[in-house]
Amino acid sequence: MASLKELRARIGSVKSTKKITSAMKMVAAAKLRRAQQKAEAAGPYAVAMRRMLGELAAAMAGQDGAPKLLAGTGGDRVHLLVPITSDRGLAGGFNSNINRRTRQTVRKLQAEGKIVKLLPVGRKGADYLAREFSDLIVDRVIGVGGKELPFSAASDLGDKIVSLLDAGEFDVCTVIYNQFRNVMSQVPTPLQLIPLGLDDAAAAEPDANAAQYEFEPDEQTLLERLLPRNLQVQLYAAMLESAAGEQGARMTAMDNATRNAGKAIDRLSQTYNRTRQANITNELIEIMSGAQAV
C-alpha cells in the first residue's frame, strides 16, 4: 500500500494535470468559435464554385483540349492522396481517423492495381505515413496549422499539386479531411479534386436545370485563371473544416481528460483518507497496548 506521502504527491500531480487540461479545453473552445465561423463562411462559396465547374466539366466531357484541372489526364492509373491532419496531438481520434482512412484508401487502390502517391498535410499525418508508406510520399506540408490559417497555405499547396500534375506525376487527386459536423463529430471525408466532377447534389438535378455558360473574354483565358483558383478554394475550405474539427476534437478530449482527472482525485482522496484512518487506528492500538502492559 502506498504511503501517505506518496498519495499526497499523486493527488497534487493529478490536480496539476487537471488544471492544464481545463485550460486547454477553454483555449480550444475559444479557437473553435473562430475556426467554425471561418469554415461556415467559406463553405457556401466553395460549394457554389465546385458546382459550377462540375457542371462545366460534365458539359466538356470527352472534348479535346479540356484543361487537365477540369477533365484530368484521361486516365486513373496513378492516384495522389492529400490527407489533412494537425501538427499537434491531444485531439482524441482526430488524426488517427484520417490516418486510418488514408491507409484503407491506399490498400484499396493498390488492390485494384493502382499506383498511389501521398502528399500529407500536417505533422501527425506525415509522421504516421512515413512509417507506413515512406516510399509513397512525394512531398509534405507542415506548419500550416498555427493560430491563423492564411489562404496562402492553400495557395501554396495548390501550386504543388498543379506542378505535379503538369509533370505527369498523377492522374487523379483526392483530398481526405475531417468534415466538421459538430463538437462531438468530425467525419473523415474524401473529396476528388482532379478531375473535377459533379457532386452528389448537382448530379441529382435534372438535366433541364443545368446552367448554360457564356465565356467572356474567352473560354481558355477564363478557365486558366478560374481552375487554379477553384483548386485553392476547395483546399482552403477543406483545411478550414479540418481546423474547426481539430479544435472541436481537442475541446472534447480535454473535457474528458478533466472529468477523468476529477474522478482520479476523488479515488485517491478516498484512499488517502482510509490509509490515514488506518494509521491512526494502528497508533491508538499501539498506545492502548502499551498502557495495558504498564
Please characterize this protein's 3D structure.
The protein is an alpha/beta fold and 294 residues long. It has a single domain (44-251), classed as Pyruvate Kinase, Chain: A, domain 1 (3-Layer(aba) Sandwich). It contains 7 helices and 4 strands; from the N terminus they run ααβαβααββαα. It has a 4-stranded mixed sheet with strand order 2-1-3-4, sandwiched between helices. A hairpin with a 2-residue loop joins strand 3 and strand 4 (185-194). Helix 1 runs antiparallel to helix 7 (219-293).
Using DSSP, what is the number of strands? Answer: 4
Low-confidence stretches: 200-206
What share of residues are in beta strands? 5-15%
Which sheet architecture does the biggest sheet show? 4 strands, mixed
Number of helices: 7
List the helices and strands and how they pair.
Elements: H1 4-59, H2 68-71, E1 78-83, H3 94-111, E2 115-118, H4 123-132, H5 151-166, E3 172-182, E4 185-194, H6 200-203, H7 219-293
Parallel strand pairs: 1-2, 1-3
Antiparallel strand pairs: 3-4
